[in-house]
Amino acid sequence: ITDLPTVVTNDREVSAEMVRYLAQLGHTDIAFITGDPLHEAVADRFLGFQDGLAQSGLKMIKRFVIAGDNSFRSGEACARKLLQRKHRPTAIFAANDDMAAGVIRVAGRMRISIPEQLSVAGFDDITLSRQLDPALTTVRQPLARMAEHAVAMLANHSEHSNYECVPATLQIRESTGPAPVKH
Fold first, then answer.
1. How far apart are CA 29 and CA 58, in angstroms?
2. Residue 105 in contact with residue 135, Cβ under 8 Å?
3. Cα separation of 72 and 42, whole Å?
4. Residues ≥6 apart with Cβ < 8 Å to 108
């Protein structure tokens, strides 16, 4: 722990919220693509994934947790591994939007329709997430508000706490939908 002013978002809690949302849509086979394990926020997102499964009464399927490196290419590689399996997930939650975009590309090339056959969710709400087709359901990090809080903390260093959490929010778009009916 540092004395430097720190502004974060609630990565773990909002990731659990995303998983609960997917479970409410009927998804029980939910995969997670992890990012760089040395990135603390990304590690918190994986903990949130586990929390969300537990809160929804679902068990984590170890073969549905796959390591990416936060890049579009790793999202593609992870999607290929997950979607080529006989028993594949009905939803994939990626630790960032770049990897989720890679999932959408691979699903399209494999003729897996989103969201009818596969729901995809990401994290960050980068500009690309709104430009994808279908537009990506994601977690919006409140970067502008976080920056404002950080500036205020620096300007009033002695008057306020050195730590602040600004909550992130789900952005529900077209890439998620009800789980497909199993035959």
1. 9
2. no
3. 15
4. 114
CB 14 within 8 Å of CB 170: yes
Place of tokens 């929804």: 56
Beta strands in 14-162 (DSSP E): 30-34, 65-67, 91-94, 119-121, 138-140
25, 24, 6, 9: which is closest to 125 by C-alpha? Answer: 9
CB 58 within 8 A of CB 31: no
- Full-model pTM: 0.90
Confidence of residue 152 (pLDDT cuts 50, 70, 90): confident
- Which uninterrupted H or E stretch holds 171? strand 169-171
Cβ–Cβ under 8 Å, residues 76 and 107: no
- Give dist(CA 4, CA 153) in Å, integer: 10
